[in-house]
Amino acid sequence: MKILVTGGLGFIGSHTVVELQKEGYEVVIIDNCSNASEEVLEGITAITGKRPLFEKMDLRDKADVISFFDRHSDVAGVIHFAASKAVGESVEKPLLYYENNLTTLVYLLQQLTQKKKAHFIFSSSCTVYGQADEMPITENAPVKPAESPYGNTKQIGEEIIRDTCRVCPQLQAISLRYFNPMGAHPSAEIGELPLGVPQNLVPFITQTGIGLREQLSVFGDDYPTEDGTCIRDYIHVVDLARAHVVALKRLMDGKNEENYEVFNVGTGTGSSVMEVIHSFERVSGTKLNYKVVGRRAGDITQAYADTSLANRVLGWKAESTLDDAMRSAWKWEQKIRS
């Protein structure tokens, strides 16, 4: 079975490619390397012993997308990660996010709906819930007006897939609404490697800890939480990668109850920014230099998952703790800076 992984050189994508290859799938990666490096292929190969196929292309080019599916007519499933993903940047550059995150999705679905049967896993996000009324967040929580253009692209993306599945029964799709991925593969062959200044908390922490960044900015300590900082559900990226493989198998085995399903993917536990900092200090033995600054546009107070549906229906459960994930992130940071 050949599986296309878009954005497969990125953080979550590369770890998912590893898990797919471990299960015996043939993987082809599409990535434009706008926020990833082709060197990731070497890390994947070192772990699995098999080099995935790779095509460097931009999914915004419709002719290239059509050409790809003409050449790879045997693609049995698609896991779609390729997207711009920084909340703060999306507030500053909304049109970039709408173009990159939505036109690419449409072009992929246009090709998949021409197949007799197609299996599609969409990389969605807990941002679709906005600031949810109740914690933990279930899949039935209302989708609220997005707090950022990034979040809005995930909401609209889900609507595009839902509307397409309604009229195209041959398309079988699952959206995975995941929370905050972190960590790295235990081999330290692949991990989170943002180009430029990190937009996510954990790589900024590890880069600060190793001396690459002078100081971590904590965006606000006046939120209505126990220590005043935002709360998120941090999930080890390998646990998250496994969820994608389990979801894909569900579709390919015909076990899905409807042709469009949604699952939360998280640990079910919320951790504040300060708790994440303290986790780093525990596993590294390093005191982190941080400073509290003003709130950041688009940030919500708290979001953590009710994962009981994924646990029960998919038979999937996050296994790693916050400290486990942080330890792997620190090991990765130390390796790439050595």
UniProtKB/TrEMBL annotation:
<dbReference type="InterPro" id="IPR005886">
    <property type="entry name" value="UDP_G4E"/>
</dbReference>
<dbReference type="InterPro" id="IPR036291">
    <property type="entry name" value="NAD(P)-bd_dom_sf"/>
</dbReference>
<protein>
    <recommendedName>
        <fullName>UDP-glucose 4-epimerase</fullName>
        <ecNumber>5.1.3.2</ecNumber>
    </recommendedName>
</protein>
<comment type="pathway">
    <text>Carbohydrate metabolism; galactose metabolism.</text>
</comment>
<keyword id="KW-0119">Carbohydrate metabolism</keyword>
<comment type="subunit">
    <text>Homodimer.</text>
</comment>
<keyword id="KW-0520">NAD</keyword>
<feature type="domain" description="NAD(P)-binding">
    <location>
        <begin position="4"/>
        <end position="327"/>
    </location>
</feature>
<dbReference type="Pfam" id="PF16363">
    <property type="entry name" value="GDP_Man_Dehyd"/>
</dbReference>
<comment type="similarity">
    <text>Belongs to the NAD(P)-dependent epimerase/dehydratase family.</text>
</comment>
<dbReference type="InterPro" id="IPR016040">
    <property type="entry name" value="NAD(P)-bd_dom"/>
</dbReference>
<keyword id="KW-0413">Isomerase</keyword>
